[in-house]
Design a protein that fits this description.
Order of helices and strands: EHEEHHEEEEHEEEEEHEEEEHHEEHHHHH
Largest sheet: 7 strands, mixed
Mean pLDDT: 90
Bound molecules: flavin-adenine dinucleotide
Strand order of the largest sheet: 6-5-14-15-16-13-17
Helix content: 25-40%
Low-confidence stretches: 409-415
Strand content: 15-25%
Number of helices: 12
Structural class: alpha/beta
Oligomer: single chain
Radius of gyration: 21 Å
Shape: globular
């Protein structure tokens, strides 16, 4: 099969990457249909997340940053504390450009909502209740099959269908399954405001038994999340069946004895609380074939501990659209993978390490509490923190994407 200049694309998955890819492809002159399995964008399960400066930069490249900024809570600082209440240090989450806005925190459902609204306002065809069940080559392009029996043909097919991607298994039936990350996730919106909490500061508490984070939000609320250790992978549906009382008991046991506001925040949180497990994908060996490519969580899901899941999906979407604008498939997919793989796999590895640091044993805890202030201070003295590389990324929309060189040749990093 020869290369093809894409004029049409089927995008599978209307989460974060899907609608943004739809908008970015439109800007690149490619018409996309975005197919979301569920009848509407994802609802609120109490989860909130960060769109970091690198994610905002990607949105800015296609003029889609404003609505996300308006929906989010600016979060220019992260402060780390131990379970004894000691401040271990802090980092500035802003990027190198002092004029650029700080990263924001927002409800996951709100992020989905504003991205979908923008995509629809721009005329991107987003189809809900449209679940991909199969795909095959058809002539020079691809034919996608949906569970309602409908089919769509396009020049290329993009799998933006998340950590349990169907497109990934169609590309590679032997692709590695997502890896269980041994932490539990719980989150909520509390009516308690902790004394001394600073607006714009995300406070992360390395408690004795579990990790806790909180942020002041508008309307006298405090958003929080908790990561108790979860040694054994739960059976499918087990966590969904957990009751509010069960999760409150887990949290009470996790934070008893810590000097933090965790228990006050949980007590003032309307239920029902929900919990979910964490999975990541350290290396997905096949990202593309001649006409199909993966992006976002489908290619490289990361533990929320990295704070980068959404931002990497946004970067991917805009970088892939540039590649398809300038190159035929599959050269566009090769260029995309070359630009993205090393970076996103480094993010996933960092997320895994941070997850492990959230629930160390007693010895690890003491070592961490001793070492972290030194590391943060040394970083601050150099005007940087250890994770600044994650946020330092710029997508130059106008630059032309060169043809990828033969394997083994050096390729410049960045977007
Ligand atoms: C409950 C929860 C909480 C999270 N909290 C955080 C956090 O605090 N911080 C953080 O950084 N990240 C967090 N994440 C991860 C973050 O949401 C993802 O990294 C990000 O959404 C990735 O975007 P995506 O577009 O690649 O995938 P997703 O946003 O997962 O979107 C994939 C979409 O594809 C759809 N889909 C799946 N299969 C099909 C199919 N066959 N046909 C059509 N559509 C399909 C799904 O319904 C979904 O809407 C959380 C994720 C979850 C689930």
């Amino acid at each position: 099969m020869s290369g093809v200049r894409a004029r049409t694309a089927v995008v599978v998955g209307g989460g974060i990457a899907g609608p943004v890819l739809g908008m970015a492809l439109q800007r690149a002159g490619i018409t996309a249909t975005v197919h979301e399995a569920y009848p509407a964008p994802a609802g609120d399960v109490g989860a909130w997340l960060g769109v970091q400066v690198n994610g905002l930069d990607a949105l800015r490249a296609i003029g889609a940053e404003r609505a996300v900024l308006e929906a989010g809570v600016p979060t220019p600082r992260i402060e780390f504390r131990s379970g004894t209440g000691r401040v271990l240090g802090g980092i500035d989450t802003r990027g190198d450009d002092p004029a650029a806005p700080a990263g924001v925190s927002l409800k996951r459902s709100e992020l989905y909502r504003v991205l979908h609204e923008q995509a629809r306002e721009r005329g991107v065809d987003v189809r809900y209740g449209s679940r991909l069940v199969g795909a095959r080559r058809a002539g020079e392009g691809v034919l996608a099959e949906f569970d309602d029996g409908s089919t769509v043909t396009a020049d290329v097919l993009v799998g933006a269908d998340g950590v349990r991607s169907t497109v990934r298994s169609l590309l590679d039936a032997g692709a590695a399954a997502p890896r269980f990350v041994p932490i539990l996730n719980l989150a909520g919106y509390s009516e308690h405001v902790p004394a001394g909490a600073e607006p714009g500061t995300l406070t992360m508490v390395f408690g004795r038994r579990a990790f806790f984070g909180y942020l002041l939000a508008p309307g006298g609320r405090t958003w929080w999340f908790a990561n108790p250790p979860l040694a054994v992978e739960p059976a499918r549906g087990e966590l969904e069946a957990g009751t509010d009382a069960r999760w409150r008991a887990v949290l009470a046991a996790s934070f008893a004895g810590d000097r933090s506001c965790a228990l006050d925040l949980v007590a003032a949180t309307p239920g029902p609380l929900r919990a979910w497990a964490t999975y990541d994908l350290p290396t997905v060996r096949t990202w593309h074939d001649e006409r199909t490519v993966l992006l976002g969580d489908a290619a490289h899901a990361t533990s929320p501990a990295a704070g980068q899941g959404a931002s990497q999906a946004l970067e991917d979407a805009v970088v892939l659209a540039r590649c398809l604008r300038d190159l035929p498939a599959p050269a566009a997919f090769e260029a995309f993978e070359r630009q993205r793989r090393a970076r996103v796999e480094r993010v996933v590895a960092a997320g895994w390490r941070t997850s492990a640091a959230k629930s160390p044993g007693a010895v690890g805890r003491v070592a961490r509490d001793l070492v972290m202030p030194l590391v943060l201070r040394a970083g601050a003295a150099r005007g940087q923190d250890q994770q600044a590389w994650m946020r330092r990324h710029h997508v130059d929309w106008d630059a032309t994407v060169p043809l990828p060189r033969a394997r083994g040749a050096a390729v410049p990093a960045g977007g």
